[in-house]
Specification:
405 residues; seven-stranded mixed β-sheet; 14 helices; 15 strands; globular; binds pyridoxal-5'-phosphate
């Protein structure tokens, strides 16, 4: 992997000036390069003003910068019309937006939504809330214990009653990359809408909404080098135009009288109040950064790290890896070490400067299926190194020995 200069990349991330830090929790949130931090800080230092409101120069500049970030997001996922890109607080808010603005208005008792047992809680709970209120039925595509979706009965699960199919693209627990195109094609046959949770796939794979032809898609800026507090909701313009607003307030209206209000055009109809301007600009800078390095290079490097990590972890006695046996996978490895509770293990790793996640990873149905309460999760991104994987393995072996003595 000599084209990929990981040390040069690391020098862009101020947090890695702490040489003892081994950060293996990018699936939770990524670290930020100085280009992103500077973009946010420059905005506040030099161009801060509210958007869409002022006719003075500074406000117009802020509006332009905010719009330019939206255009970068549109280009990044190959969206032809920037009006399809709604800025939200993150994937969670984007999913709730569809639950409120589309599902609650359009679905009735007996209609069905299909998700999978592999979902993050943010793609389960909003639909459960809709189901409680409207009597819709929530169905699940089952998972196999090897971390893949069981698509054998897709024809029976997607029926004329199915109105929405909402699926995670890449699992935040197993790293499995799901065959979403196949699922989308099935959904289309019955006229169901499709929603893709791309929170984990977007940071290191080309996601092309025109190619996928999904109706909705969501992701979070903070998992792709951007700031927290900014997320993306993509919807086809014809659908967004028919949907009711999510939240009411400033900017999302066309006119307000004491008795009635009318709505602004998309995307503004879905962006009530002062948006997260600096965060959107930071996300734009993150996209520039990723484009500069090249998404394919990032993908290949992360895959390379994943393969090395899998090979080395598999040699550790008593270590069980969940998933990564069949099909495509990337960037995330969940595992447990015999006789060591995941929380204890995470603490021992932390003593060696290694940051991993321990818990249910907001995916309790997966834990139930695996018959465990929690796992350790190591996740990789463009700034991780092979040496860090060696240190992870050494620390794991040391901890295993300590507990077995
Ligand atoms: C697959 C997946 N979906 C949704 C989310 C929720 O993202 P956020 O907390 O940024 O809204 C996460 C976060 O871990 C995730 O991994």
């Amino acid at each position: 992997m000599n084209k990929f200069d990981v040390q040069k990349i690391r020098s862009d991330f101020p947090i890695f000036s702490d040489k003892s830090l081994i950060y293996l929790d990018s699936a939770a949130t990524t670290q930020k390069p100085k280009q992103v931090i500077d973009a946010v800080s420059n905005f506040y230092s030099n161009s801060n003003a509210n958007v869409h409101r002022g006719i003075y120069d500074l406000s117009m500049k802020a509006t332009e910068a905010y719009h330019s970030a939206r255009q970068k997001v549109a280009d990044f996922i190959n969206v032809p019309d920037w009006r399809s890109i709604i800025f939200t607080g993150g994937t969670t808010e984007s999913i709730n937006l569809v639950a409120y603005s589309w599902a609650r208005k359009n679905l009735k008792n007996g209609d069905e939504i299909l998700i999978t047992e592999m979902e993050h809680h943010s793609n389960i709970v909003p639909w459960q809330l809709v189901a409680e209120e409207s009597g819709i039925i929530l169905n699940y595509i089952p998972i196999n214990t090897n971390g893949t979706l069981d698509l054998n009965n897709l024809d029976k699960l997607i029926t004329n009653k199915t109105k929405l199919v909402s699926v995670i693209h890449q699992s935040n627990v197993f790293g499995t990359i799901n065959p979403i195109k196949e699922i989308i094609d099935h959904a289309k046959k019955v006229g169901a809408l499709t929603f893709i949770d791309a929170a984990q796939s977007i940071p290191h794979s080309h996601v092309d909404v025109q190619d996928l032809d999904c109706d909705f898609l969501a992701f979070s800026g903070h998992k792709m080098l951007g700031p927290t507090g900014i997320g993306v909701f993509y919807g086809k313009t014809e659908l967004l135009n028919t949907m009711a607003p999510f939240m009411g307030g400033g900017d999302m209206i066309n006119s307000v009288t004491m008795t009635k209000s009318t709505w602004n055009d998309i995307p503004y109809k879905f962006e009530a109040g002062t948006p997260n301007i600096a965060q959107a600009i930071g996300l734009g800078a993150a996209i520039d950064y990723i484009n500069e390095i090249g998404l394919t290079n990032i993908h290949d490097y992360v895959k390379h790290l994943l393969n090395i990590a899998l090979e080395k972890l598999r040699t550790i006695d008593g270590l069980t890896i969940y998933g990564h046996q069949v099909g495509e996978s990337s960037s995330v490895i969940s595992f447990n070490l015999e006789e060591v509770h995941p929380h204890d293990l995470a603490q021992f790793l932390d003593q060696d400067g290694i940051a991993v996640r321990a818990g249910h990873h907001c995916a309790q149905p997966i834990m139930d299926k695996l018959g465990v309460s929690s796992t350790i999760r190591a996740s990789f991104y463009l700034y991780n190194t092979e040496e860090e994987i060696d240190k992870l393995c050494a620390s794991l072996k040391k901890t295993a020995n300590f507990f077995r003595e």
